[in-house]
Amino acid sequence: GRQVILIDDGSTDSSGEICRKYHEKYPDNIVHIKQENQGQSHARNNGLDYAEGKYLNFLDSDDKLERDTLNEIYYHFLKFGDEIDVITIPRYNFDKVNKPLILAERYAETRIVDIEREYDFPQVAINAAFIRKDALCGNFDTELFISEDSLLLNKTILGKGKFGAVGNVRYMYRKRQESNSTINTKKTRKEYFSPRMTHYFKELINFSIEKCGHVPKYIQTVLTYDLRWLFSNKTEIGILDKEETDTYYNHIYDVLQYIDDDIILTQDFNDDLKEEMINFKNRN
Predict the structure, then answer these.
(1) Measured distance CA(3)–CA(26) in Å, rounded
(2) Strand 91-94 and strand 171-174: pairing?
(3) CB 230 within 8 A of CB 252
(4) Comparing 78 with 235, which gets the higher pLDDT?
(5) Which of 166, 154, 156 is nearest to 66 (CA)?
(6) CB-based contacts of 170: which residues, under 8 Å, 6+ apart?
(7) Fewer beta carbons under 10 A from the terminal one: N or C of the chain?
């Protein structure tokens, strides 16, 4: 049967009571876990300890899946067989903003994606992914409060070097016009900078080298997708002191050495941004 695991991460509203009522109504299917507020990675790792199913999905509390999504995913896991451990679906905004998110158009054809051939199809959100439990590559890194999902997802994808792309169902991401506050708050924390460079960017590089002997173009594309926001926003100004800024920039420089110029140049973002990244990479 299907299992829903609800983690109450120290909520201060009525969420815990709602979870408890659902558990009482469906005790064979719904697990309710209450923990002190420790953040998303701790909550998800806690949930993994209780997961009994063959497949996993990490649905965010504000979001939803289209009707029949789970049936479709199960069918395609059976159809694709052992060739893949991960299936992803396109993400769409809903609520006050309604539009497809990054690369949604790439799901027009349902297929198995070979990351060596189709390396420009980066996966950065684990909430829109469905994963074989026995293939999940470890747990979420609790040192990270952002990009921990991309890290774990891409480590898992590297296992087979392929993933399924299913386009006839959608992950519905709740986007409110005023909801930028959460991500902006993250960008004011010092952990957003050098610790993220170490625990996410460099960890994914080191894992790739250990696994493949090099950093595949697919992983380079994933890294470039996330690096673009660091170059376009520059939120470190006014948050880091000079020594911290120098360390942070050195981390960025180190990461860029593993990304080919042509990977940067073929990305779908501003040409000035691409030029800035390449100049930074090739500095003396």
Answers:
(1) 10
(2) parallel
(3) yes
(4) 78
(5) 166
(6) 65, 66, 69, 89, 90, 91, 92
(7) C
